[in-house]
Amino acid sequence: MNRINSAAWGRRSALAALAVLAGLAPAQAQRATKTTKASTEKAVATNRVDQADSLALRKIFDEALLRGQSYENLRYLTGTIGGRLAGSPQAQQAVEWGKLTMEKAGFERVYLQEVMVPHWVRGPRERGEIVGNKDKSIKVAVCALGGSVGTDGKLKAGVVEVKSFDELRSLPDAAVKGKFVFFNRPFDDALIEPGMAYGRAGDQRRSGAIEAAKRGAVGALVRSLTSARDDNPHTGMMAYDPAVPKVPGAALSTLAAERLSLLLKASPDLQFELEMACKTLPDEKSFNVVGEIKGSKLPNEIITVGGHLDSWDLSEGAHDDGTGVVQSMEALRLLRATGFKPERTVRAVLFMNEENGNRGGIEYARLAAANNENHLAAIESDGGGFTPRGFNVEAEPAVVAKLAKWGPLLRPYHASSITVGHGGTDIGPLKEAVKPKALIGYDCDSQRYFDIHHTAADTFDKVNRRELELGGASMASLIYLLSKYGL
């Protein structure tokens, strides 16, 4: 018997012995061994893939932390350009800056998408006073809500306080007509996620002026949407109903709201005096800014990542949404800098007019549909530039499950939480227009976000460099995995 045959006989003898011990026939034992071998080979191959991906992600994070450009880009956007309300000269400067920044980063194609946007202007600083007996007055911190009409001089009237629309509807006409309706529903601080509290309190800001006007009120005063107790009033978009008279809408700081509520209890007949010169001008031409890296294998499958370039006018718009803008551009730069050639086309989109109309998101989706584009997924960063936690996903359960399997790769960077949740306002219109498999919202620690959201306090100094760069790297890492494996 030659050496090879002896080895073969040895293997057969071993199988026979295994079969006796396991109660299997030799043929069954051989099949079991083949299955075990195949499983082992598959596990080894999977480990190799995981190791390669792990190393790739480590390179992305090294590049971000050691040579990241998000922070310095944000410094320029906020410090040199500042607040960027849609339709303003600063918004146009931001468009030009975004295009130039992406061209310098070496993206293969950079272009603009024209979009008409609303042009609301705040005018001179708003004034608000609580007026008591003998015209004694207390100045309070107040700001116009975005889109509000002005007061045409000083508007002085009594005040009725409510916590909800249902409470307002229950009041007799005489208690409301000719007065300001003061919506004083606070954040629910028992909720762990501040975003949920924001959502539950938000109707009073969005529709408070409509509900007040329906009852004959002269205006709406709204408690700022925040847990913070300070004198920073929070602006934000409000709406009007064409069938209902337009009355002014203004936000009170939380301290101002608490003071007004306390004084109303002591003196229900007190008055409030409001002066706002805001107005809406004709629509202005503006642009989304788009930068693209073409896919090497599946160029017709598109992954979009973006944030909104516009901001409210009270501040520099650092966390809302300067951080999302610079992180989206940085995500593509990180892929290029680490030598990764995406298999699918990746786009960074700086959307215009998220804050008071979402015209940029709507136009991007319209053009995607008109061009018959195939969007695999879209990612949005619009929750601030704080420490990464992971991603929220709008998708079918099987897609969410597939994304969740990548969690362990992101765990070393504290970005492994991949759960069902809201994708984002700018990318939302894509859902119906081109039906991507997933809308994905970058999720970071939001506990401090609503302290400064839509206020004068949303400034560059509130952004931590490492937190910001980690966020861009987290987004780049997810794009790497989406581009390589699809959904």
Automatic annotation (TrEMBL):
InterPro entries: CPQ, Peptidase_M28. The keyword Zinc applies. Residues 288-470 form the Peptidase M28 domain. Keywords: Carboxypeptidase, Endoplasmic reticulum, Glycoprotein, Golgi apparatus, Hydrolase, Lysosome, Metal-binding, Metalloprotease, Protease, Secreted, Signal, Zinc, Zymogen. Pfam families: Peptidase_M28. It comes from the Bacteria. Its main location: endoplasmic reticulum. GO terms for molecular function: carboxypeptidase activity; metal ion binding; metallodipeptidase activity. One of its GO terms (cellular component) is lysosome. GO terms for biological process: proteolysis. Gene3D superfamilies: 3.50.30.30, Zn peptidases. It is found in: Endoplasmic reticulum; Golgi apparatus; Lysosome; Secreted. The keyword Magnesium does not apply. Residues 1-29 form the signal peptide. Homodimer. The monomeric form is inactive while the homodimer is active. This is Carboxypeptidase Q. It comes from Hymenobacter arizonensis. The lineage of its organism: Bacteria, Pseudomonadati, Bacteroidota, Cytophagia, Cytophagales.
